[in-house]
Amino acid sequence: QQQVKQSPQSLIVQKGGISIINCAYENTAFDYFPWYQQFPGKGPALLIAIRPDVSEKKEGRFTISFNKSAKQFSLHIMDSQPGDSATYFCAASPRGAGGTSYGKLTFGQGTILTVHP
Amino acid sequence: DTAVSQTPKYLVTQMGNDKSIKCEQNLGHDTMYWYKQDSKKFLKIMFSYNNKELIINETVPNRFSPKSPDKAHLNLHINSLELGDSAVYFCASSQSLTVTDTQYFGPGTRLTVL
């Protein structure tokens, strides 16, 4: 049972272009939606995250758009650079009692982004 | 000054063997995790510990046994290794179980079972 569905599996963008990765979820208990970036041979690292009480969050060239009613969220990378080439994972975590999530991050399948110079 | 470290980085072994992967974090965090990343890069949580107490135990075979000697360490022991155990195993840590706490991942251990 895939609780977070991510698309596309792979994405090729020219330098300076916009990269868009989409995720959809079913579990309405999800309360926190981080995006992780993973370079080859490295562990994932948090890129940006959003809570469902806002529809958009921007940090530099990275923006998360969140649509609570559609249960969808997306990552936009503006002015994509070759250094952005990596695998991107969306994830979701449920809110439990007292604001804890028990650390349970559910990841999407990942998107391999290639930015050509 | 690595935040989350794992040893070994690579592990090649025969089916049926027993092996361990060690993880240490120097961030002063209370919570640690083990994740498995398969050949298709799918990441799935296996275990989480908070203050040395097991919190999450996903549907992982009994052959996998985590051990947390203290808050800074979470080791993973695997008995009777099978071909399907081949994957990259990531350790991670977070300050606590609060939903917004960032999880910091280690560099991973690539396990190959022959």
Topology at a glance:
The complex is a heterodimer of chains A (about 120) and B (about 110).
Chain A: E1 4-7, E2 10-14, E3 19-25, E4 30-38, E5 45-50, E6 56-59, E7 62-67, E8 72-77, E9 86-94, E10 106-107, E11 111-116
Parallel strand pairs in A: 2-11
Antiparallel strand pairs in A: 1-3, 3-8, 4-5, 4-9, 6-7, 7-8, 9-10, 9-11
Chain B: E1 4-7, E2 10-13, E3 19-25, E4 31-37, E5 43-50, E6 53-57, E7 64-70, E8 73-78, E9 87-94, E10 104-105, E11 109-113
Parallel strand pairs in B: 2-11
Antiparallel strand pairs in B: 1-3, 3-8, 4-5, 4-9, 5-6, 7-8, 9-10, 9-11
Tag the structure with descriptive keywords.
heterodimer; A: 117 residues; mainly beta; six-stranded mixed sheet; five-stranded antiparallel sheet; globular; B: 114 residues; seven-stranded mixed sheet; four-stranded antiparallel sheet; 0% helix
Give a nutshell description of this structure:
The complex is a heterodimer of chains A (117) and B (114). Chain A has 117 residues and is mostly beta strands. Chain A has strands at residues 4-7, 10-14, 19-25, 30-38, 45-50, 56-59, 62-67, 72-77, 86-94, 106-107, 111-116.
Structural overview:
The complex is a heterodimer of chains A (117) and B (114). With 117 residues, chain A is mainly beta. Chain A has no helices and 11 strands. In chain A, strand 6 and strand 7 form a beta hairpin. Chain A is globular and about 45 Å long. The mean pLDDT of chain A is 93. Helix content of chain B is 0%, strand content 55%. Chain B has strands spanning 4-7, 10-13, 19-25, 31-37, 43-50, 53-57, 64-70, 73-78, 87-94, 104-105, 109-113. In chain B, strands 2, 4, 5, 6, 9, 10 and 11 form a 7-stranded mixed β-sheet that branches. In chain B, strands 1-3-8-7 form a 4-stranded antiparallel β-sheet, with no helix packed on it. Classes of the chains: A mainly beta (117), B mainly beta (114). Chains A and B meet through strand 4, strand 5, strand 9 and strand 10 of A and strand 5, strand 9 and strand 10 of B.
